[in-house]
């Protein structure tokens, strides 16, 4: 069963995935600068992530460590999107993505390579 993280929790996780183990104070400083959160907001979200098992806290200095990899969350979020919006059909999602914008020759080549590996 995949862990469901809300957008606010993903903001905290993004800092940890990008920067590695960090103090709660550092995370709050980053998120204050990036999105204007107050320290209490960030600490509340970190606490929620700890309760869910997404983050482990250690002393000294309340160091936070991500317990789940970004790829696991991306996979779960993609599965949820496919199931919720595209009736469980990955090809419908793929067609919708391709139909939305003009792709460069390089992007098309990369997609062909990915599809080729799946066959």
Please characterize this protein's 3D structure.
The chain is mostly helical and 119 residues long. The protein contains six helices and three strands. A three-stranded antiparallel beta sheet has the order 1-3-2. Helix 2 packs across helix 3 (39-52).
Q: Give the overall form.
A: elongated
Our measurement of the CA-to-CA distance between the termini, rounded to an integer number of angstroms, reads 27 Å
Biggest β-sheet strands, sense, barrel = 3 strands, antiparallel
* Percent helix: 55-70%
Order of helices and strands: HEHHEEHHH
The mean pLDDT is 90
**Low-pLDDT sequence parts:** none
In short:
The chain is mainly α and 119 residues long. The protein has helices at 7-19, 24-35, 39-52, 70-85, 90-100, 105-118, and strands at residues 22-23, 55-58, 63-66. The mean pLDDT is 90.
Topology (elements, then pairings):
Layout: H1 7-19, E1 22-23, H2 24-35, H3 39-52, E2 55-58, E3 63-66, H4 70-85, H5 90-100, H6 105-118
Antiparallel strand pairs: 1-3, 2-3
Helix pairs in contact: 1-3, 2-3
């Amino acid at each position: 069963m995949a862990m469901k993280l809300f957008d606010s929790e993903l903001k905290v996780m993004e800092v940890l995935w990008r920067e590695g183990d960090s103090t709660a104070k550092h995370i709050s400083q980053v998120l204050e600068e990036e999105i204007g959160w107050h320290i209490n907001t960030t600490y509340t979200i970190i606490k929620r992530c700890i309760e869910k098992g997404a983050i482990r806290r250690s002393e000294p200095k309340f160091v936070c460590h991500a317990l789940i990899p970004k790829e696991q969350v991306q996979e779960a979020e993609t599965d949820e999107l496919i199931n919720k919006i595209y009736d469980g059909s990955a090809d419908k999602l793929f067609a919708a993505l391709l139909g939305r914008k003009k792709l460069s020759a390089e992007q098309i080549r990369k997609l062909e390579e990915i599809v080729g590996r799946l066959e």
